[in-house]
Amino acid sequence: MIVLDIKQINEASNMPFEDAVYHAALCYVRAGIPVLPLEPNSKKLPSEGGINYMSATVKESTVKKWFGPEGKYRGFNIGIGCGTKDGVMALDIDSKPVSGTTGLQELEKITKKEGPLPPGPRQSTPSGGDHYLYQWQDNAVSSSSKVANGIDTRGGTSDRCTGHIVAYPSIVNGKAYEWIEGGEVPPMPEWLSVSLGQPWRDKPKDDKPKDEIPVHQINRMLTVIDPDSLSYEDWVKVG
Fold first, then answer.
1. Which residues pair with 83 in a beta bridge?
2. H or E element, residue 220
3. Whole-prediction pTM value?
4. CA-to-CA distance for 155 and 147, rounded, in angstroms?
5. Which residues contact 205 (CB under 8 A, 6 or more apart)?
6. Per-residue CA distances from 187 to 31, 39, 87, 150, 169 (Å)
7. Which of 165, 210, 212 is nearest to 44 (CA)?
C-alpha cells in the first residue's frame, strides 16, 4: 500500500528550492514511490550522467547522492517514475486544446458517465492540468490520447518504469507543481483499465512435437509436379 502524505511533503514549501527537492524526494521514496532527477526548469531526464528509466529508485542512499547537500543533481527538478508491480501509474489530464477539446473537458464527460474518480493523490500542473496517481497493473502503460483527446497515461512494465511525471516541488517556466490531495494510492478505475485494453503478452510456445515429413517423401512429391502446369504468376504466388 502506497500512501502519499502531502502534509509532510508540503513542509518543503518553506525551504530553499534545493532543500525542498531533497525533502520531497525522501518523502516519495519512503512511501515506496520511485523518483528520477529531471533537468532544471524542464520535464526531461538529464542529458548527461547516464540517467534513464532503469535509474528510477526508492533508495534513500541514491536520493542523497542525487539531491543531497553534495548531490550530483542538486537543484534539479524531480520526477516520479511510473511502472513496476509495486509502483504507480499516472493519469495526465491536459488543459491545452486537442482536436477542439481539452483533457479536462473529456474527463468531465467520462466522470458524468462512469462516476467520480476514486479519492487519492492529485497534483496540479503549471499549465492548469492534473496528475492522478493509481496503483500500477499489467496494462498500465504510457499512452498519448488513447483514453481520450488530451488524456495521457504514464506507466511501465512489471519490472521497470517506462514513463514519468514531473512532481512537486519542481518548477517549469517559473510555475510550480502542487499536490492538491494526498492519501492512499487507489487502484485504477475500471473505465481507465478498459480504455487501455488487455496487456500484450508473448504467444505461448507450442511444445507439442510437430509431425515431420521424411526428406525422401518430399523428393517423391516434387518429382510428380509438372512445372508447366502453373503460370508464371501462379508460381510467384506459391513462392
1. 161
2. helix 215-223
3. 0.82
4. 14
5. none
6. 16, 30, 11, 22, 25
7. 165
